[in-house]
Amino acid sequence: MGSIDLLGTQARQLGVPSKMADGTEYLSLSMFIAEEISSRENAPLREVELAALAAGVIPEHYVRNFNSIDIQGQINLLSSKLALVGLGGLGGLLIEAFARMGVGHIEAADGDSFEESNLNRQLLSSSQRVRLSKARSASLRVVTINPAIDCAAHAEFVTEDSLRAMCHGASVLVDALGGLDNRQLLQDVATEFNIPLVTAGMAGFSGYVATVLPGQPGPASFFGSGSAAEDSLGTPVPAVYTAASLQAAEVMRILAGQAPALDNRMLLFDLNDMSFEKIQIA
Description:
Distance between the termini: 48 Å
Largest sheet: 8 strands, mixed
Number of strands: 11
Protein name: ThiF family protein
Strand content: 15-25%
Helix content: 40-55%
Oligomer: single chain
Shape: globular
Structural class: alpha/beta
GO molecular function, one term: ubiquitin-like modifier activating enzyme activity
GO biological process, one term: cyclic threonylcarbamoyladenosine biosynthetic process
Domain THIF-type NAD/FAD binding fold: 64-281
InterPro entries: ThiF/MoeB/HesA, ThiF_NAD_FAD-bd, Ubiquitin-activating_enz
């Protein structure tokens, strides 16, 4: 296996001078060259990308992340692990976003399979994938988007023990559950592992997103369990995509090394009148 210095040197030698959309010059590493280095040096593709970034070479896959984040932020993303619970409406969108932004290790779980009623909003579903495991669909999707990512998608509903195993070494826990059940468990385990929880929910055209810091109250502290408003109001695709996008933005900030925008706050949105409001929850 090649050393980081050797991989970085090869990336610099094979990098191509390029310009970003704003005219900023940089050395670009195409995925084809990265895969060639990976194969030649018997090194994981993610290690090649990390070495390239450390040497100041930007894998072309991530160039449009700049300059919203810098090289260190992209290194942080590729070096990070997150835990994601749920691979349906929110989770399918989120795991795609995490793979595209370059989160290095994704640990995900969902014991459900696709139904026809999921087709209105769940990105990983299709008419050909009805009855397919959501975890299997997620794994297939991630590897086609970003083969440098380590993704373990488990076809099981989380328990206390399995959730703790998923959170071991993670920097953030992401709640993509539907309904209200088990959300308090996620909040408690995130506190146990001293990591933030990024959570969301929606019903009809409205919803919320919150970042719960360890030991602080979150939406689950107030909403409890049982039936949820989405059971009567439905989950149309605009609200699901809005909530997932807001969650992805928070996770990207956290993993890249920036402060969360919703630290112990909840962002409420209503697409009926396009209103957004932040409230303090801790």
